[in-house]
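Lab notebook, bench 4. Still working through the backlog of constructs that have no structural model yet. Next entry is a single chain of 116 residues. Request: give me the structure tokens for it.
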Amino acid sequence: QVQLVESGGDLVQPGGSLRLSCAASGFPFSIFPMSWYRQVPGKERELVARISSVSGSTNYGDSVKGRFTISRDNSKNTVYLQMNSLKPEDTAVYYCKAPWGKDGFWGQGTQVTVSS
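Model written out:
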């Protein structure tokens, strides 16, 4: 059974940092690229960051470049999102996604709220 479990979301002040984790199971994690998306009510999900399987190459959405870092630990089947210099507009539910199945597989999401 495929599972993606996100954690690490919290309430944080502007300028603060958070690290999100996504623990994967039920599929060969190390050979798949992984992605983080985010969504606010009334808007489509937005790609935040993606990391390849083998080389670890990364790419980021324009709004988070230079502030967020995606990484993975294949020995732990986990992908991370380090978020620094957080802004109120980063407030969203953050989801990880695996390219598994017809339309990909999503976790349940973790809420990040940036507010003073």
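Notes after review: The chain has no helices and eleven strands. The chain has a mean pLDDT of 96. Flag for follow-up if needed.
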